[in-house]
Every structure is written in C-alpha cells, then in structure tokens.
Specification:
Blueprint lengths: L5 E8 L8 E7 L5 E7 L2 E6 L17
Antiparallel strand pairs: 1-2, 2-3, 3-4
Length: 65
C-alpha cells in the first residue's frame, strides 16, 4: 500500500464546538508545504501557511537513502 501523502501534525479544537471549530495543520509529505484547515459548523477552509515574507512554510521531508 502506498504511504499517505498528507500527515496531520497539529490539531486544536473540537468538532463538537461549532462556534470555534477544529483547526488542523496538514503536512504534504511530497512537497513539505504545511496547510491550515479550519472546519466550523457546515463550512471548511484550507490555505497554505505563510511565513513573514509571504512564502509557504516548508518542512524538508525525510529522504530515504
């Protein structure tokens, strides 16, 4: 089975509290880009995390030798 491309690296909040919702940071293991996902009520949004210069936050993936 192929490894999953996205990994949840941070989670805050709960699905049970619709006013604040759940915030999750996903790591794309192929590109290293981190994404913020917010789920609240019936809505959802996703955006790449950006650094202070407006560039995507990148975590260097582990390389297999």
């Amino acid at each position: 089975m192929k490894d999953k491309r996205f990994e949840e690296i941070y989670k805050e909040g709960s699905d049970l509290v619709s006013s604040t919702g759940r915030k999750t940071i996903l790591l794309d293991k192929e590109t290293g880009v981190q994404y913020l996902v917010i789920v609240a009520g019936c809505g959802m949004s996703i955006t790449p995390l950006l650094d202070e210069d407006g560039r995507p936050v990148v975590t260097i993936p582990d390389y297999k030798y």
